[in-house]
From TrEMBL, chain A:
Superkingdom assignment: Bacteria
Gene Ontology molecular function terms on file: iron ion binding; oxidoreductase activity
Coiled-coil stretches: none
InterPro entries given in the database record: Ald_Oxase/Xan_DH_a/b, Ald_Oxase/Xan_DH_a/b_sf, Ald_Oxase/xanthine_DH-like, AldOxase/xan_DH_MoCoBD1, AldOxase/xan_DH_MoCoBD2, AldOxase/xan_DH_Mopterin-bd_sf
NADP among keywords: no
Keywords: Molybdenum, Oxidoreductase
Annotated protein name in UniProt: Molybdopterin-dependent oxidoreductase
Organism placement in taxonomy: Bacteria, Pseudomonadati, Pseudomonadota, Alphaproteobacteria, Sneathiellales
Chain ranges of the Aldehyde oxidase/xanthine dehydrogenase a/b hammerhead domain: 21-141
Organism: Sneathiella chungangensis
SUPFAM superfamilies: CO dehydrogenase molybdoprotein N-domain-like (SSF54665), Molybdenum cofactor-binding domain (SSF56003)
TrEMBL record, chain B:
Keywords: FAD, Flavoprotein, Oxidoreductase
One Pfam match: FAD_binding_5
Name under which the protein is recorded: Carbon monoxide dehydrogenase
Lineage: Bacteria, Pseudomonadati, Pseudomonadota, Alphaproteobacteria, Sneathiellales
Keyword field contains Transmembrane: no
UniProtKB/TrEMBL annotation, chain C:
CDD domains to which the protein is assigned, alphabetical: fer2
Species annotation: Sneathiella chungangensis
Pfam family name, one: Fer2_2
Protein name, per record: 2Fe-2S iron-sulfur cluster binding domain-containing protein
Domain (2Fe-2S ferredoxin-type) ranges: 2-78
Length: 783, 262, 155
């Protein structure tokens, strides 16, 4: 029996109706009576001491309600922003997390650092007043480049972090790797830069803070991927208000890609200020502020070496990376270049020994944290560029080299030398499928045709793996995470049979309102339109960890399944009572409860109604039909697959045209194929953006951000991108009840490596991302 | 935006007398309004020219095409007159900014701003156009003075641009990947008075590439320019492209413009 | 203050606004039509796209005063009598949106695109959507949506 709109159906999204008619409720769409507007005065310098701040002229400007500085927050006992993941250096010392006040107290450390918060009756008045604030700066020499920041003699950004070093971390068996290299027939080497990116969800961050003087309750509406975590941190670490007096709501959120995970200075200041002035305060970032303050992604410099034998078998892998943390340590920044990176360096390959060391440091730049993929794109980029380099050195076809070294389908569970246990997969299957999709074997003929037209043609492969469904708590806790990473759900039947699902996950484009409803429709036979998914409000949903790391379905969806199981269990008891049978004889399928061997049956709706109208109920049956569950999985999930990009390059200009793209991904079971395909498209687009178009650039002398608007930061547009061929393979995930692995990050992880391998293949030379026309043209024309 | 006054006159003379020293004319606003939003300008008053009907419209008079200052890019791009008289000009206009910008932006506003990466300056200089103001007529080459600087005096207002209709013309643009302005654009025209090659985006101001003009005069074909290099010194260099790369683009785009000429 | 009057989604509206009021501010703050979004400050993302006298424009790059007497349509005015515009329906059917923030502007641009190009090729769609940025979809399904809508609109 199959169910309409159940698991596996490409159900059109329930949330779309409000979005396509302009009836979404994004944060800046909200206003409150008596609302004032907040505006941040920001540092124009990358690094300076603050000698004094004179607010007198500004405070008497028209419309000004009040102006606050960092000193006011400190005086109020508000703590600094925190990093929630502790990393331990090689020498056993904890990472350096220097103070990070929401507004600067004695120094500013990047352009855009908060200096004062001006609140006025209108935004224009707040901006006018901000221009009247006089700040005495002692300008210092900044450093923006991570290699320079870690070099001797660099400007010292925090006294708590000598030499600007945050940590010097290692993973793997160095002695075993050294020994393997000493005896290797071949050693291939590569140097890589993983360019800094700005996440750029289309909705800028915003906050609306409210204070109820009667109840003492604070309500913060904010653009968050995880409102409960925001509340926890603001309450426990910053001391904004106790959790029971602080409500955090994330309404419709216009994209996140990681950047809305973090607890930022602006949202914190806004809610604090609302209580100070006892009025609602709204702050909305403009795009310029987003470029200056949304946590950036990537920014690694890496040297890697691969040892191989004469048969093309990999012996050992050695990776050394410098990671830029920016001016302060953002919420999960420390984990990104370590446990989300080093642990994935085995890729899809059987590599006997791996050693990785990462030095993370501070610079006078915007903080860097998780951005779509977070650490795993960086790992895949290193592994997959390395594989192509080695294949070239060994004069092997890059797919043959990979196939020869893949972990085989019968090898699971497979323990890597970098502390991951892969649970399932079939890497050759996905690679062969991708090759077939793009007609890999026909490439030579297409290349010849391009050459006849004066063009260069290249093909590039990336066989990626990611650890997703970020959890389980025990594992992440042992690696330094300050929080557990389980998820919550409540499934609540209303008396007339409709269902409200409360989830700790948060949707900001992923389509949870549809996918989660499909689970209910499938398991309990409730029409999908009768299922409402509620998320994003700490006063409505149980504590949950939010959405990132492709975890919502694998962890949040599994929590829903657990709650559904409890609903079924209870329903069986009610059905048994109503149909005068024993519980053991009740059978359940898609919301229909029947007595085995009879034609007696009741639907879920009938049982739910009976649960709320418990006339003639035995004493041991509890009325009502609502169950909650918390789910903590046994392992990460391991989506993997192969993407192949094909490019044609105009040697006269260096312009890269992506002529084809094939993606074969193993996401385990799929609930809604349409949504999954959309996630792959979006991920690949961001991967292509990184490889071809995007890059945050600072002026190294002044520390000014040179890519501070869409005039200079190149966002992928429709005509930059190709159509994508997308297919999935499926080895169900054994670690969760849905058998799902997560799909949100795959494209961003596979994309850059596939595309750069294609470009390098076309031009025959290594170049770094982004492969701008000029860089490609220069490489083609260099000797 | 800082506050300002706003006026919308219905005639050129009225507009000219409305404008004061700290004031600005508002044409399509596609550059001015973003500038105001970023608080990079603080005019006392904006004098909106959109109510002046005499500034709008396209006409062909014998050997000359006339485009009113307040004619939008979309109107130039879609005009049957422009397409038949100077197809390259229609094609150029159809690639300025994006669809929404073309629905608001005007030729008068664009050339008065003289953004070094704008497209229209290449067409005006390439075709040897004349800029007409409420006070005088100025040859395009004299009109575009330097980076964001024109021959316009305070209170002087572009009323129309007249283009001599060439034998053939072509435009090729290499857009800045981020802003989509011209990283380098080359307009090539074969006219009664000789071949003209105008380059935008590559330097601080539109300029003529005379070596290419000479070469094309004897042989109007892509091959004639494909070996001609432009000296990189003096060309723009920024995070998007070096001067060397722009110099290369001049050669490549010139050849493509010649090939596209019709 | 200056008085502006215009027709928005078929309804005559009038208000006294400061001359530096943008059309998008007038639409969002005065009329409370919040489907029109602001995603950048340099006139590039297109989230604020509306129709003024039938043409797509960026309402963040136009003063309310410049729309005096104009006929303005926002995303809220696209559906007629409770029935989705074919472009809206196509975006839903083809999964042409994810977070939904760019969507109103994207749909308004797409409607204008099909008006100008009744039977657009994929390349035309991609080129003509240059003024709208989407960070979620990779545009694949947006292009598909516009193509499907154009067919349904009788192109």
């Amino acid at each position: 029996m199959s169910v309409e709109n159940g698991i596996g159906a490409s159900v059109r999204r329930k949330e779309d109706q409000r979005f396509i008619t302009g009836n979404g409720h994004y944060l800046d769409d909200m206003n409150r009576a008596g609302q004032a507007y907040g505006y941040f005065l920001r540092s124009p310098y990358a690094f300076a001491k603050i000698k004094n701040i004179d607010l007198s002229a500004a405070k008497s400007a028209p419309g000004v309600v009040d102006i606050f500085t960092g000193a006011d927050m400190v005086a109020d006992g508000i703590g600094g922003l925190i990093c929630g993941w502790g990393i331990t250096s090689k020498d056993g010392s904890p990472h350096k997390a220097p103070p990070h006040n929401s507004m600067a107290v004695d120094a500013v450390r990047h352009v855009g650092d908060q200096v004062a918060f001006v609140i006025a009756e209108t935004l224009e008045q707040a901006k006018n007043a901000a221009e009247l604030i006089e700040v005495g700066y002692e300008v210092l020499t900044p450093v923006t480049n991570i290699a320079k920041a870690l070099a001797p003699g660099a400007p010292q950004i925090h006294e708590e972090a000598p030499g600007n070093l945050c940590y010097d971390w290692e993973l793997g068996d160095k002695a075993a790797v050294d020994a393997a290299f000493a005896n290797a027939a071949h050693v291939s080497k590569i140097d890589l830069v993983n360019n800094r990116l700005s996440p750029n969800p289309m909705e800028p961050r915003a906050a609306l803070g409210e204070y109820d003087a009667g109840s003492g309750e604070l309500t913060l509406h904010t653009t968050s991927q995880n409102p409960h975590v925001a509340r926890l941190i603001m309450s426990a670490f910053l001391g904004i208000a106790p959790e029971n007096k602080l409500r955090v709501v994330a309404p419709d959120v216009g994209g996140g890609f990681g950047s809305k995970i973090f607890v930022y200075a602006e949202e914190t200041t806004t809610i604090w200020a609302a209580r100070k002035i006892n009025r609602p305060v709204k702050w909305t970032a403009d795009r310029s502020e987003a470029f200056l303050t949304d946590a950036h992604g990537r920014d690694h410099v890496t040297h890697a070496e691969l040892a191989t034998d004469n048969d093309g078998k990999i012996l050992a892998f050695r990776v050394s990376t410098k990671a830029n943390m920016g001016a302060y340590l953002s919420t999960f920044a420390s984990a990104v270049p370590t446990y989300l990176y080093g642990t994935l360096l085995s890729g899809q390959y059987k590599i006997p020994s791996i050693y990785c060391e990462v030095q993370a440091g501070f610079t006078n730049t915007t903080p860097v944290d998780a951005y779509r993929g977070a650490g795993r794109p960086e790992a895949t980029y290193v592994v997959e560029r390395m594989m192509d380099t080695a294949a070239k050195d060994l004069k092997m076809d890059p797919t043959e080299f990979r196939l020869k070294n893949f972990i085989q389908p019968d090898a699971y569970p497979y323990e890597t030398p970098v502390i991951m246990t892969y649970d399932s997969g079939d890497y050759p299957l996905a690679m062969n499928l991708a090759k077939e999709m793009i007609d890999y074997n026909g490439f030579a003929a297409r290349k010849a045709q391009s050459e006849a037209n004066g063009k260069l043609r290249g093909i590039g492969v990336a066989a990626y793996i990611e650890a997703c469904g970020i959890a389980p708590s025990a594992a992440v806790g042992s690696l330094g995470a300050g929080v557990g990473l389980w998820e919550s759900a409540e499934v609540r039947f209303n008396p007339t049979g409709s269902v409200t699902v409360f989830t700790g996950s948060h949707s900001h484009g992923q389509g949870h309102e549809t996918t989660f409803a499909q689970i209910i429709a499938d398991k309990l036979g409730v029409p999908i339109d009768s299922v409402e998914v509620v998320h994003g409000d700490t006063s409505k949903v149980p504590f949950g960890m939010g959405t990132y790391g492709s975890r919502s379905l694998a962890v949040g969806g599994s929590a829903i399944v657990k709650a559904v199981d409890k609903i079924v269990e209870k329903s069986k008891k009610i059905a048994a009572h109503l149909m005068e049978a024993s519980v053991e004889d009740i059978e359940h399928e898609h919301g229909v409860f029947s007595v085995a061997g009879t034609d007696k049956k009741l639907t879920m709706g009938e049982i739910a109604f009976a649960a709320y109208v418990p006339h003639n109920y035995p004493a041991d049956l509890e009325p009502g039909m609502a169950e909650n569950a918390f789910y903590d999985p046994l392992n990460f999930t391991f989506p993997a697959g192969t993407h192949i990009a094909e490019v044609e390059i105009d040697p006269a200009t260096g312009v890269v045209d992506i002529v084809d793209w094939a993606a074969a991904d193993d996401f385990g079971n799929v609930i809604n194929p349409m949504i999954v395909e959309g996630q792959v498209h979006g991920g690949v687009a961001q991967g292509i953006g990184q490889a071809l178009l995007e890059g945050v650039i600072y002026d190294e002398e002044s520390g000014q951000l040179l890519t501070g608007s869409y005039m200079d930061y190149c966002m992928p547009r429709a005509d930059d991108l190709p159509n994508f061929r997308v297919a999935t393979t499926n080895t169900p995930c054994p670690s969760n009840p849905l058998g799902v692995k997560g799909c949100g990050e795959a494209g961003a992880i596979a994309g850059p490596a596939a595309l750069m391998n294609a470009i390098v293949n076309a031009i025959g030379k290594d170049i770094d991302m982004p492969a701008t026309p000029e860089k490609v043209w220069r490489a083609i024309n260099s000797n | 935006m800082y506050s300002f006054d706003y006026e919308r006159p219905s005639g050129v003379n009225e507009a000219a007398s409305a404008i004061g020293e700290d004031d600005k004319f508002l044409a399509g606003g596609q550059t001015l309004i973003p500038t105001l939003k970023l608080r990079l300008a603080q005019p006392g008053k904006l004098v909106d020219l959109s109510g002046i009907s005499e500034l709008k419209g396209i006409s062909v008079n014998g050997s000359e095409l006339s485009v009113g200052a307040m004619t939008r890019h979309v109107d130039v791009a879609d005009s049957a007159d422009v397409k038949s008289a100077i197809p390259a000009l229609a094609q150029l206009a159809s690639h300025i900014g994006d669809a929404q910008v073309r629905n608001r932006g005007t030729i008068g506003g664009s050339i008065s701003n003289n953004d070094p990466a704008a497209d229209y300056p290449a067409a005006l200089v390439g075709l040897g156009a004349t800029v007409h103001t409420n006070k005088r007529s100025i040859s395009a080459e004299d009109f575009f003075v330097d980076l964001f600087e024109t021959a316009l005096e305070d209170g002087e207002l572009v009323t129309k641009v007249t283009f001599p209709i060439p034998e053939k013309a072509g435009y090729a643009k290499f857009p800045n990947p981020a802003s989509r302005f011209a990283l380098t654009g080359v307009f090539v025209a074969k006219t009664a008075s000789g071949v003209r090659v105008a380059v935008t985006g590559a330097g601080p101001c539109v300029f003529r590439q005379t070596d290419m003009e000479a070469a094309l005069s004897s042989n109007f074909s892509p091959d004639a320019v494909s070996g001609i290099k432009t000296e990189a010194s003096g060309l723009n260099a920024d995070i998007h492209a070096s001067a060397d790369y722009r110099a290369n683009l001049i050669t490549v785009m010139a050849a493509r413009a010649v090939k596209a000429a019709s | 203050m200056t008085t502006v009057s215009m027709t928005v989604n078929g309804k005559k509206v009038s208000a006294d606004v400061a001359p530096n009021t943008l059309l998008v501010q007038f639409i969002r703050d005065n009329l409370r039509l919040t489907g029109t979004h602001v995603g950048c400050d340099t006139s590039q993302c297109g989230a604020c796209t509306v129709h003024v006298n039938g043409d797509s424009v960026k309402s963040c790059t136009m003063l309310a005063a410049q729309a005096e007497g104009a006929d303005v349509t926002t995303i809220e005015g696209l559906a007629k009598n409770g029935e989705l515009h074919p472009m809206q329906a196509a975006f839903k059917e083809n999964h042409g949106l994810q977070c939904g923030f760019c969507t109103p502007g994207m749909i308004m641009s797409a409607v204008d695109l099909v008006k100008r190009n009744p039977n657009p090729s994929e390349e035309t769609i991609r080129t003509e959507l240059e003024g709208n940025i989407c960070r979620c979809t990779g545009y694949h399904n947006i292009v598909k949506s516009v193509k499907a809508a154009a067919e349904n609109m009788g192109g």
